[in-house]
Design goal:
UDP-N-acetylmuramoyl-L-alanine:D-glutamate ligase; single chain; 16 strands; alpha/beta; four-stranded mixed β-sheet
């Protein structure tokens, strides 16, 4: 069972448009609403793969009620923590060539009691969890050290922690030894304070974060693939994707694939890449089911291509 923690969940509304023109009235060719937030997306991908998952998240207002209902319809147990504010609504505009324009709302401000309520919800449900996936930005009201405290409490309870966040929240949590962190290239560059232009640069940065406490690093490099650095060594994997429809939630699907495959080693990395590649072929923030996966398209190696330039270097 994968327990997910999403401190700042959302409803994600996606509109497919023939084009985006400022100041014009735009008519969508398709639209959908999905439960959102990085941890919620991980839970959706875990459920789509046929595994049990529980989604812990603060939920408030009619938006929070809709979020809980949508999760239930997907077979996900929603462990909602009641809050005074309303769950945020994010909007994504998708153009025919795959260009995305995202509008992310700030979300509600959590009180100290509401933040403690999230800790309590995790504690009461973590005894049967194989992994706790803590994902996404922190809402207003939570200090950058909030994830660090969650990692510490969860480790004391004997749980394994996967952390997918960025900035001060990521760096503050490193000393607590999260079992795996999942930064993208930009987040990794920010954490080490220098630009990353090659896969070798990414490897050095991942090793640095391991020295600072992370037990393993699963680095997402977009179209260039993914790099896993752990105690057993470093592994690199790529997958062929002929057409990208939407990359919203692809990293979250990737983390779900990694954790449901055991959360370590080249096999889990291959699963992560297969899930991420499948997600970008789907509309909006849809999560891939087993039928969407193409494991044969994934190439995994322990010979990391150090000199390979990143398609999108991290400044």
């Amino acid at each position: 069972m994968i327990l997910t923690v999403t401190p700042n969940p959302s409803l994600d509304r996606t509109y497919e448009l023939p084009g985006v023109v400022r100041g014009a009235v735009l008519r969508a060719t398709a639209d959908r609403v999905d439960p959102g937030g990085k941890g919620v997306n991980v839970a959706r991908a875990v459920a789509a793969a046929g595994h049990r998952t529980v989604a812990v998240a603060p939920m408030g207002g009619p938006e929070g009620a809709l979020l809980a209902r949508l999760l239930g319809e997907l077979g996900i147990e929603a462990a909602g923590v009641p809050i005074t504010g309303s769950t945020r609504v994010n909007v994504t505009l998708v153009e025919p060539d795959g260009t995305l324009t995202k509008i992310n709302a700030a979300g509600p401000e959590l009180s100290a009691d509401e933040a403690e309520g999230v800790f309590d919800a995790v504690r009461s449900r973590s005894s049967t969890a194989d992994w706790i996936a803590c994902c996404g930005s922190l809402p207003r009201g939570l200090a950058p050290e909030w994830y660090a405290e969650l990692v510490a409490r969860s480790h004391r309870a004997g749980a394994r922690i996967a952390l997918d966040t960025s900035g001060d929240a990521l760096t503050a949590a490193l000393a607590g030894g999260p079992d795996v962190i999942k930064p993208n290239a930009l987040e990794l560059a920010e954490a080490v304070g220098r630009p990353l232009g090659t896969v070798g640069d990414v490897l050095k940065a991942a090793e640095e974060l391991r020295e600072r406490g992370a037990r393993s690093v699963l680095a997402s490099l977009g179209a260039d693939g993914q790099l896993l650095v752990e105690a057993s060594g470093a592994y690199f994997a790529t997958a062929r994707v002929d057409a990208v429809r939407s990359n919203v939630g692809a990293g979250d699907a990737s983390l779900a694939g990694f954790l449901t495959a055991g959360g370590r080693g080249p096999g889990a990395l291959a699963s992560a890449v297969a899930h991420g590649a499948a997600a970008v072929r789907l509309a909006g923030s849809l999560m891939p089911a087993p039928a969407d996966l193409d494991p044969t398209s994934v190439v995994t190696t322990s010979h990391v291509p150090l000199d390979r330039a990143l398609t999108e270097p991290a400044p």
